[in-house]
Request: fold
Amino acid sequence: MSQIGSFALLLALALSAYSFLAGALALAQPGPGSERLGETARRAGIATFALVFLAAVVLVTSAFQDDFSIAYIYHHSNRDLPAPYKFATLWSGQEGSLLFWSLLLAAYGLVLRLRHKTDAHLFAYASVIIAAVQIFFLLLLNFAAHPFALMTGTLPADGAGLNPLLQYPEMVIHPPMLYLGYVGFTVPFAFALGALIMRYPGEKWIRITRRWTMVTWAFLTCGVFLGAHWAYSVLGWGGYWGWDPVENASLMPWLTGTAFLHSVMMQEKRGMLKMWNMWLIFATFWLAILGTFLTRSGIISSVHAFAQSSIGGWFKWFLLITFATFTFFFFKNKSHLRSEHRLESLISRESSFLFNNLLLLLACFTVLWGTWFPLISEYVQGNKVTVGPPFYNKVAIPVALLLLLLTAVGPLLAWRKTSLESLKRNFMWPALGALMVGILMIAVGVRPWTDISYFYALMAAMLATLVALTVTSEFIRGGRVISRHTGQNLLASVVHLFHRNTRRYGGYIVHFGVAVVIIGILGTPFNQDREKEMGYGDKMTIGPYTLICESYTQDDNPNYSNEWAIINVFEGDRQITTMYPERRFYKASQQPQTLPRIRSTVKEDLYLTYEGLNETTGRPIIKAHLNPLVMWIWVGVLIMIGGTVLALIPNAAPARVKAPARIETAPVGAGD
Amino acid sequence: MTLFFRRSDIDGAFLAGEPKMTKGTLKSNPIFRRGLHAMLLCLTAFALLGAGDQSVRFNSLGHRLICVCGCTQILLECNHVGCTYSDRMRAELIAGLDRGENDDLTLQDFVQRYGPTVMAAPTATGFNRVAWVMPFLALALGLLTTIFIVLAWKKKPALAAPGGVLPASGADLEGFRAQARKDTQL
Reply:
């Protein structure tokens, strides 16, 4: 089996090299034979997908067959590993995840190559660029991180097992989502670079890549938040974001990708920010690779860095080469990227996008700076320092609040120029609503002057309300206009309105989701926790809950042995649930793992962890966290994803109104 | 300086009210003495409240340190089963607080014992200041650049329309816009 996989990877490398070289040659020397040469390059790219797919199938099959002659399978699987995790073995370690990356890139390349008739010339450029990136990953797979490398010496009877932290249902979907996001940004980057190299006229390439970018962004959003949810549900420290370098690595391309999604609208609508957009999409692609480099090279220590090795050098060179290539073509053809319009007013949609980009980039810079500062410090001072949550919380939160303010104000601004009068008219009610929320929070006991975190929470609540209300008011105002003209009820009119411009109103739903996420995050300063050794019948109180230990026990199965406590949860005199915080000990990997149990409500999460047994008394130590509003984060993310999906729906065809002869009016964009 | 006391108040009260007293009579006045004692008592109580509320300081300091076991988690959040560092470090933190050390001294003890990486964020001293300054410097530079771009764009002359027709501006443009809004309203 391993030979099939190895051969498939080698052949895939040869074919992608051919796809790159033949494709580039066909584009460089247009002539009678170049079209056919280009076609062979396209087909070689398609065949690359088939071969990488074959290699992935071989690796997964080997995991299911417990083929421990393959070193990767030995290190990341064992006989008693449940089937879904055997499947997840594909992305559980370095070699496998690189193969998975390559597979996703080949799959994106396949779709692109199959849809080449949309614009054969531009697609040919994009195909060549994707082939170049594919070559890098296949080189890694063939020569630096071979997934089919064989074990030496005596064949082991069983595998070393999968890292216990990865044995959680979400880990079967979190990495694929994240990778779909990371890899996906290669496609808009390939189109952007292709358009730059060929001096592609107009903004058609943006319209072609719009859906790619949005889908990719949705995957990355999903991946980032699934990671946060996984950390919350598995790591057992009661939080969901620890500003770990690997978490940061996923956040950086998300931030620049979000900036790109916004600023690209300025290019599409007004022919502005062309150079900026080129750099933004390049930065997003580059940061996705940098993230992989951080995760894989081991240069920065992280609790999530599951696979570390010496492939950092390969990544460094690739990052350098891509940077040099992009910079070369940018300076060669930048005259092609001149803005077609100028900014007319500071109070306009354009300027809100400019400031939105500034803040998103600043947030990205802060995260990048914080991630790299330990290395910079070591270089300058000779000793490393830690840059942890206190740093990011102090620096990033004010930036996030400013971004939230722009999220609220931005949609109320018109393209080109907005009069102060219209801004006042649109802004008054949402602002009053936000103010009311602020007053209400102070009335219920939030004292922003006692602690900076309370101040942030108050501001976040007010701004999130502002975002939610501006979005709602936009829907209602538009719906009313339609309702007046069509006689439909308001709800039907809002649906009608949405179908007229799905991208704009889908975007508003995403903004609404962001507001909901922020409301969830602002519960953090009010978190409580308690820890207690609990014997039979012992009580612990946290917030409105009383926890009573009913029992504690042990169990054993082929994959792991475990200990857990049975905790009855009372609210007042009423028992509301029973929770079973657990600790497992995985036999193959010889590693322990704590599994928290969470009771989520709209108001708060009760989060219990089994910290261990007191060796003297033999009684379990239970830690309880009370985390307000956490569920809002996950609901907010679902709204964000839902909004993105809705934004992908094509607009309904505009209603045709019979106009008097000779008069032809161009439709006026709603100004998304 | 004038102080105000209400005669009927219990010790410890410090409210505005009747008899006015001058500075010269204060020392010998029993009400003043009682008031002073009450104030001292209050101050002591507040001081003790601060010092005695070890759990608040423990929580605050424990969130400014990380566990050095390699998990890179905040000390009070490290929950690795069998972690050989976090329990010991927490005990050391409690011991430091029990010795009556102030926050800086307690943290300094940890830095000397475990190295500078034990601090969860860079200190605001020496080169570490750069860590804090850079994001704000970037913000300032970014803002300046954005303002520069906006001003440059605003100064740029409007593109001439084909055929020598000047684009509408000012009140004319507003008029056209209002008309367009009216005509295209759904």
Chain B has three domains: 1-52, 54-121, 127-159. Confidence is low (pLDDT under 50) at residues 1-26, 45-52 of chain B.
